[in-house]
Amino acid sequence: MTDPIRVLIADDQPLQRMGTSMFLAAQPDVAVVGEASDGGEAVRLARELLPDVVLMDVRMPNLDGIAATRLLVGHGATGRPHVLLLTTFDLDEYVLSGLEAGASGFLTKDAEPGALLSAIRAVAAGDAVIAPSATRRLLHRLAGGPGPGHPAAAESTAVAGLTAREREILVAIGEGLTNAEIADRLYLAESTVKSHVGRIFTKIGARDRVQAVIVAFRAGLVRV
């Protein structure tokens, strides 16, 4: 039997934390290891308890979820958990910053319990999750080009190091295709695509598909 997914819940609303904790505690493959009421406490507990997944509210006092995410999974962070952002709005103004900071995706707080559980399992397995209702608008924002101070040049350099096949696969990832769908499109074995994806992530410095999509759009490889 595999070990349960260790989850830390970070939310400044006690009832939200309690409800989420009770639901997750009833799942055989999930263990709630701690609860935090703000970003600072979330960072401290994550470093102490080493959860697999942090459910991170975006808007919290003292240290918000974006800053906490950056501290936990940003450049130089050690023992990095997967962060799943939770927001009241289906495209919170800070969500893109959170994804760029290293979060593995986000869901809205009104998501169905089953969707939350599926998202936790997905990010724990190294996949990425974006609320379906927000995907199109998120891609439009990405396609709008980098904001002030965004390291677009570094991203372009990373993409320049890809082979022609790797660029082709990165474009497909940016279009939202799964490994199986990419394999069908390019007439490759799915295992071959998976190997390519791993090398692409290493070359462009992406932790998961969300990060790869951001790089692809910022580099101008994919347009909405």
UniProtKB/TrEMBL annotation:
Keyword NAD belongs to the record: no
Domain Response regulatory per the UniProt entry, residue ranges: 6-124
BP GO terms, sorted: phosphorelay signal transduction system; regulation of DNA-templated transcription
SMART domains to which the protein is assigned, alphabetical: HTH_LUXR, REC
Gene Ontology terms for molecular function: DNA binding
Short name of any one Pfam family annotated for the protein: GerE
HTH luxR-type domain segment(s): 155-220
4-aspartylphosphate PTM sites in chain numbering: D57
Keywords: DNA-binding, Phosphoprotein, Transcription, Transcription regulation
The protein, known as: DNA-binding response regulator
Organism: Promicromonospora citrea
